[in-house]
Amino acid sequence: MDTGHAFSSDVAFSPSVKAVQTRKGSRRSYSRMEERGSWQTTITPELAGFIARQTSVFLATANAEAQPYVQHRGGPPGFLRVLDDKTIGFVDFTGNRQYITQGNLNENPKAQLFLIDYAQRRRIKIWGEARIVEGNSELIDALMPEGYTARPEQVIVFTVAAWDANCPQHIPQRFDAADVAAALAERDKRIADLEAEIAQLRADNLAEK
After folding, report:
1. To the nearest whole number, what is the mean pLDDT of the chain?
2. What is the pTM of this model?
3. Could you tell me where the DSSP H helices lie in the chain?
4. Which own/partner contact pairs does 35-40 have at CB distance under 8 Å and 24+ positions apart?
5. Is residue 144 over pLDDT 90?
6. E strands within 85-168?
7. Cβ-Cβ contacts under 8 Å for 56 (sequence gap 6 or more)
8. Contact in structure between 91 and 140 (CB atoms under 8 Å)
9. Taking CA 119 as the corner, what is the angle to CA 72 and CA 94, rounded to the nearest 5 degrees?
């Protein structure tokens, strides 16, 4: 995607943003970042792995009047699919049928994906453009998570312009209920094994007396 920007981070660092950075004292450090190559513009193997593990994503769009809207989408790990080093695709499941995101994209294709992993306290921001693909059953079948019972309606294809990873500062550490349940089950099994071992040791000790 040709953005026409001098630096990939200019997708977010507009002249107004840079003016604020200058006034507040952070522009110099971001200038050095730009000189080193700025933000990455392709999906690296590490980013692809992070995307594949996510069960939740926020998709930000804006209409022709610049009114923003953020929509949540979720699914099992792997519902977000990296199609190539510039493209992410996922099935858009039937929801409340407001179609705000689709209407916005019809007027303005610019969009952002925001992914946050609370357990690892990591967040990724991806800028680019998105489009809706309707009526393509083959693409839906290719991207539909196996065994997932949600009803697919269409596909969202996202083309990456740039992405950035934030530091973990201020991200609360939270865990999925399934992960907590698995950890507690493992703990309970370990406790049961230890109790059985103690009981056996006591039985062996009594037998020796």
Report:
1. 91
2. 0.81
3. 15-24, 27-35, 45-53, 100-107, 137-143, 177-208
4. 38/7, 38/8, 38/9, 38/162, 39/7, 39/8, 39/9, 39/11, 39/162, 39/163, 39/164, 40/8, 40/162, 40/163
5. yes
6. 87-93, 110-117, 122-133, 152-166
7. 72, 73, 74, 115, 116
8. yes
9. 20
CA distance 45 to 138: 26
Under a CB-based contact definition with an 8 Å cutoff, are residues 82 and 122 in contact?
A: no
What is the side-by-side strand order in the sheet with 68-74? Answer: 68-74, 56-62, 110-117, 122-133, 152-166, 87-93, 81-84
Mapping DSSP to helix (H, G, I), strand (E, B) and coil, where does residue 206 land?
helix
**34-83: per-residue pLDDT in tens?**
999 899 999 999 999 999 999 999 999 999 999 999 999 999 999 999 99
Contact 106, 54 (CB under 8 A): no
Please say whether the beta carbons of 49 and 80 come within 8 A: no
pLDDT at residue 83, rounded to an integer: 97
C-alpha closest to that of 90 among 103, 102, 99, 81 = 81
CA angle, 134 then 137 then 143, to 5°: 95
**Look-up: residue for tokens 């952070």?**
26
Q: Specify the amino acid at residue 80.
A: L
Tell me the CA distances in angstroms from 45 to 90, 127, 134, 156, 205, one per residue in order. 18, 18, 29, 21, 56
In this structure, how many other beta carbons lie within 10 angstroms of the beta carbon of residue 71? 18
Backbone angles phi, psi at 5, to 5 degrees: -90, 150
CB of 69 within 8 A of CB of 61?
yes
